[in-house]
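Hi support team,

I submitted a single chain yesterday and got back a structure, but I'm not sure I'm reading the token output correctly. Could someone confirm the output below corresponds to the sequence I sent? I've pasted both exactly as they appear in my results page.

Thanks,
R.
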Amino acid sequence: MIEELLIAVATAGVAVAVYAGAAARVVKQYERGVVFRFGRLRNEIRSPGFTMIVPVVDRLHKVNMQIVTMPVPAQEGITRDNVTVRVDAVVYFKVVDAADALVRVEDYKFAVSQMAQTSLRSIIGKSDLDDLLSNREKLNQGLELMLDSPAMGWGVAIDRVEIKDVSLPETMKRSMARQAEADRERRARVINADAELQASKKLAEAAGVMSAQPAALQLRLLQTVMAVSAEKNSTLVLPIPVELLRFLERAAPGAEHGSTGAEPTPEPTPAIAPLSEAYLKGRGDAVDAVEDLTGASVDPAPKPDDAGV
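Hi R., thanks for writing in. Yes, this is the structure output for that exact sequence:
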């Protein structure tokens, strides 16, 4: 009798152990347990820790409640200003209702991925190229709103959406580079023009000071010569301003006489005595007395014969 009782107790213990092993479940801290009994959803969501279910009757599904990072494949589209771009993004989302994530949608991760791709293509078509490149914060908020509306019905909350990269065609990159170069060149020219304006004002003030003191111009010229000669150049081209020549002209000793305007008196030309008639007659007789010593310079031509040739 005692042996039969011990066997019954042992059998019951084994059955309890088997039942406990089949019914025991452990839910981790970042998970929630959803129980289906004969295929019907139980209202109670199992919290983290040790829990029990009815073997064979209940099915426990664990849902991860962590934030999921899902990259969105690059989508190619045409912007509102007719530029072909290729944009990829990343979506951060998490499950807020484990029961809805299992019941309302077959695969909530796949559903969020497809929704993100279609929303990204829609954003590309509604935006300009400048917005995609410089105003991404606004586009990220628009993407988050487009994804969050349907995802709330699936028990999923969109935490954040970020546009990761925007790929442009090579021709567009060259055009943008030329535009940037032109803009920088324009700003450089404006800066140079402003500098020239300021320099001209300072030069005008300096010219006013030098016109009041002509010696200052000469001192400035000497400073320029010293600055150029410090470079050890073999040739020095020195421009002389007209004001310096005028200063030297005024400083010359004979400048006072020249400033009166009196013309110099020409020197007298020595007078030549007239020739007498006797002298002229004697010169004529001397010329007649000279014989022709040269003779005939050319032989006379022969006379033709009477008979002719």
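A quick pointer for reading it: The longest strand covers residues 84-95. Let us know if anything else looks off.

Best,
Support desk
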